[in-house]
Design a protein that fits this description.
Length: about 375
């Protein structure tokens, strides 16, 4: 169960001017205005492209943010885990799509329970005929068939069948009692951070050509795929170009992080989305001559990417390094004034999704005021 916002030591700062700089740290900070502008920008982008939006919950794990996305026009949300899906279904978020196969008996039972609920628009994926058979047995007497997408390996090698196997697997789904073939899922996670935009575009369009051939093969077999779902923040403006995807599963655009800021900088005068997520950390020691020590380390930031980037409270050009579980090092440029003991510094997160999963609450700010506390509802939900 997620932490109660009222139990936070920062609850006392709600509505108090200057509360942002007085946060008890480490604290996950969301700039509400930037978040809402990002949500609006992506909604406008997909409307202009004539496609749908089913953003990923794995980024924010938040019912509040999911509701904001749906209110802006998203037809539903994508969830990697059944735990995320269960949270979203209980919150009456429509169009919940589970993007990773449910294969164990326990996971299938949980998916069946969701399928038997009154939720609108639940869907799931398969990438193997044995999984189709297991789901069919579990759902054979369900009141309505479960919408199932054939997950195709778009080149990442994580989940998904081969392109050659996809038409046969779609036929197996169509013939399975309790299931209904809904379309194709193809998520190219390996393309999202390709640093050069020209290369990212070329590889994205090459994938689209393979998907077009697959759709034509399905149509010849009498299995037209009306929905093709996938894509991501790194290819959000490239995926619609070939007119293959009918909906995008973008996620990190709501927050942005160091990785996506770097990837989406190439070829643009300005980033298409704003940084809306930070981790606030305080200076706890100033005794070393070359750096100050902060209270946010490996347990406050994801560590699978670049280091955090100081954004507020530190001189331009400052550099952050991890210094153990609960500490970090902040180096400032030569000649710059070092932050004083107790100063609060905000850093851009290296990789937003796993960083969010390390925290219980969002500290939602409007400029310098703490205005809301939102729980990270699906933290740790598998």
């Amino acid at each position: 169960m997620s932490a109660s916002p009222l139990s936070s030591p920062n609850a006392r700062l709600l509505g108090r001017p200057g509360g942002r700089a007085a946060l008890d740290t480490p604290a996950l900070v969301v700039d509400r205005a930037a978040l809402d502008r990002n949500i609006a920008a992506m909604a406008a982008h997909v409307r202009a492209a004539g496609i749908a939006l089913r953003p990923h919950v794995k980024t924010h794990k938040s019912v509040v943010i999911a509701r904001r996305q749906v209110a802006a026009g998203a037809l539903g949300v994508s969830c990697v885990t059944l735990g995320e899906a269960e949270i979203m279904v209980r919150a009456n978020i429509p169009g919940v799509h589970v993007t990773s196969p449910a294969t164990t008996a326990a996971k299938i039972a949980r998916l069946v329970a969701l399928a038997r609920s009154p939720h609108r628009g639940l869907s799931a994926v398969v990438d193997h005929p044995d999984n189709v058979a297991a789901l069919s047995v579990a759902l054979r007497d369900a009141p309505a068939p479960l919408a199932v997408f054939v997950d195709v390996d778009a080149g990442q090698g994580r989940t998904g069948c081969t392109f050659d196997a996809a038409p046969k697997l779609a036929q197996v789904v169509r013939a399975a009692p309790g299931l209904a073939f809904a379309g194709i899922q193809a998520y190219a996670g390996h393309l999202q951070h390709v640093p050069a935009r020209a290369e990212r575009r070329e590889r994205t369009l090459r994938l689209a050509d393979r998907l077009r051939d697959l759709l034509q093969a399905l149509a010849r077999d009498g299995l037209p795929a009306s929905v093709v779902t996938g894509g991501g923040t790194g290819t959000f403006d490239l995926d619609p170009e070939a007119r293959i995807f009918t909906e995008l599963q973008v996620g990190s655009y709501v927050f942005m992080d160091v990785e996506y800021r770097r990837a989406l900088t190439d070829g643009r005068n300005a980033l298409p989305f704003e940084t809306a997520l930070f981790v606030a950390t305080a200076v706890v020691s100033v005794n070393q001559p070359d750096y100050v020590v902060t209270d946010a380390g490996l347990k406050s930031f994801a560590t699978d990417g670049p280091p955090p980037e100081p954004a507020r409270g530190a001189p331009p050009g400052s550099r952050y390094e991890f210094f153990g579980d609960e500490h970090g090092k902040l180096f400032v440029p030569v000649g710059a004034t070092r932050p004083a003991l107790g100063s609060v510094i905000e850093c851009v997160t290296p990789h937003c999704d796993p960083t969010v999963n390390l925290h219980d609450l969002y500290h939602v700010v409007d400029r310098d005021t703490l205005v809301e506390l939102w729980p990270v509802d699906a933290r740790g939900k598998r």
